[in-house]
Amino acid sequence: MKYKEAEILVIEALKEGLDSSSDEQRKTAINNADENTRLFGGGGLLDSMGVVILLSDLEDKLDDEYDVIISLASDSTMSKTRSPFRNIKSLANYIVASVQEVKA
Amino acid sequence: MRILITGSRKGIGRFLAETFLERGYQVFGCSRGDTDLEHEFYQHYKCDVTNETAVIKLIRSIGKSHGGIDMLINNAGIASMNHILSTPGSTITKLMDTNFMGTVLFCREAAKLMMRKKTHGKIINFSTVASPLNLEGEAIYASSKAAVQKFTQIAAKEFAPFGITVNCIGPTPIKTDLIKAVPKDKIDLLLNSQAIKRLGLKEDVLNVIDFFLSNKSDFITGQTIYLGGVHD
User: Fold this and answer.
1) Which of A46, A93, B65, B219 gets the most CB atoms within 10 Å of its CB?
2) Which CATH number fits the domain that encloses residue A68?
3) Which of A53, A63, A73 has the CB atom closest to B115's CB atom?
């Protein structure tokens, strides 16, 4: 899996997670998201509940779209400084590395 | 209704699978080996509950084929009776992996599926009266089940925002393969610690499970119910 594919996957998952209850500020931030968008910790878009929902959605999309069955669980998921979920770039890199590991 | 029962090849798991099939449920079961249970609404998976990848694949397979699950019964478990001083490390690992980690893995993956599908799912884990009774010779088995109870309490909190309840049953000894190697005097000693001094029946287990699975029990989570009048 290439980095750009993982980045698109993350942004798609974030957009699909929006619903009628999402506030306008959040909708705008997600619709304009790029690799530097902060996700978790320090003013990020997600709280801890949002992280586990995104994690689950990403596992689902990886299976459906790339036929990769994987757990994205990590000991540092909830770390404010080391979490792979801290921004879209770190998450996309983490997904690429995790997929590579499974396929190795 | 779609229900997944681990350890469904024999004993209580088999009894529960057959009961829910009689009620018209779609039942998914798993065990390390094959099963002779055949039914139009029964699907069996060969799965080692301690194998993380196998558990993930099993749950995802159900999600794809049947759109999700409504209930999970974490029945798979093993027992071992021994003095602490003569218990091999490999037995400790095996007990903790099967009884505790197996339960955690199935809870984690089933809860993800329930969350994605917005199923207000119900999860039931298995403990034992050996845990509150602090039985000699059951240190490792009882500890693995005590871990399941603590996990149940915290999972109940973490899964509540998704409408998922997690509860636990603590059966007394029941005449199954699980206790066939336990000496009679040890079983008698255990029964004498209960308020009601008899072996449990599979129907006693089913009664508590029905209570937890009832829609009327939506406000009950993180609880352990022991059979036979045993308490912490």
Assistant:
1) A46
2) 1.10.1200
3) A53
